Amino acid sequence: MANELDFLEALDRYIRDSPLGMVTLWSDLRDIALRERLMAPENDRVPAWTGVLVYQGYMECQPMGGAIVSPAAHGWSERDVQSCSHFRLTAPGREEAERTRHHKRQQGTDAALGGNVLLLCPWLQHSQRAAIERPLRELRNALDAGNAATAIGAAKELVEAAAKVVLSHLGHSSTAKSLPSLVRDALRATDTPDELATSLTATTQRLGELRNVAGSGHGRDSERPVWLGLPHLAAASGAGVASYLLASVPSA
User: Fold this and answer.
1) Contact present, 95 and 136 (Cβ < 8 Å)
2) Burial class (CB within 10 angstroms; exposed 0-12, middle 13-18, buried 19+) of 62
3) Which of 70, 96, 122 is the last residue of a domain?
4) Is 171 left (phi over 0), alpha (psi -120 to 50) or beta?
5) 8 A C-beta contact, residue 122 and residue 146
6) How far is CA 26 from CA 66, 200, 235, in A?
7) Is the pTM for the entire model greater than 0.70?
8) Which helix (H) or strand (E) holds 181?
9) Does residue 205 sit within a domain?
10) Is 27 in the same domain as 120?
11) What is the pLDDT of residues 68-109, one digit of tens each?
12) CB 200 within 8 A of CB 188
């Protein structure tokens, strides 16, 4: 359920893109909350959230014709917020918005990567663990920072590293010149059933295609827009394939 910090973060994004550097009318506050799906139309939380943010020192505004309503820990009424205009975020408010934004990114990262299960395989030697840990760390950092291209590129590198580690550990070699072929060789080495191997190889193929279009590692004549959820989808796909490869190796 959304709260005043979610509202603060949404306001910060709106104000950053606004040439006015503020939200002029109280009705615009409500429009922002509705557009961001922070509340339902019949459950107007904007007065309460605004009053709380003013009380916490994260927002300031101007009265319309009289003295500003005293801030309250429980928020304002609709009449209170309607008596104000020119809503701005304070410096502490902008800092708190960035902290909220970063926390949301970390939550999304954890959901996409599922913790550190990739590093829990008991058979991994130090050098093998390091080979997996590097792209995994880059992937996590890129997702936390909102760097789409780096995240997509790191997801591809994570799968590639997992496949090479598995092949090396099992004493197999590969002459594959593409990521799907490399993964297919690793899947065969782990005796993965053909139907599952086909699905995982197809997932790897799509990941490689995505990296070619939007990931890091290629010079481009222009940057292409990336759908907001795409880096997390790439991360989840890459981590899923890598996790399966590593988990398919017998521990003894």
Assistant:
1) no
2) exposed
3) 96
4) left
5) no
6) 16, 51, 39
7) no
8) helix 179-189
9) yes
10) no
11) 667 667 889 998 899 899 999 999 999 999 999 888 887 877
12) no
Residues 184 and 215 in one domain: yes
Half-sphere exposure of 34 (CA within 13 A, CB side): 11
Determine, yes or no, domain membership for 16: yes
Per-residue pLDDT, 173: 87
Q: Which of 176, 226, 229, 180 is CA-nearest to residue 203?
A: 180
The strand pairing partners of 89, in sequence order, are: 59
Among 115-119, 183-187, 188-192, name the one with the lowest average pLDDT.
115-119
What is the CATH classification number for the domain harbouring 206? 1.20.120.330
User: Could you list the residue range(s) of the whole structural domain that residue 136 is in?
Assistant: 114-247
Strand segments (E) across the chain: 59-63, 84-89
What integer best gives the mean pLDDT of the chain?
87
**42 phi and psi, to 5 degrees?**
-80, -5
Same domain, yes or no: 84 and 118: no
Indicate if 65 and 167 belong to the same structural domain.
no
124: left (phi over 0), alpha (psi -120 to 50) or beta: beta
Q: Which of 96, 131, 162 is the last residue of a domain?
A: 96
Task: Return the ∠ at Cα 211 (arms to 205 and 214), rounded to 5°.
Answer: 135
CB contact set of 86 (below 8 Å; sequence gap of 6+): 22, 23, 24, 61, 62
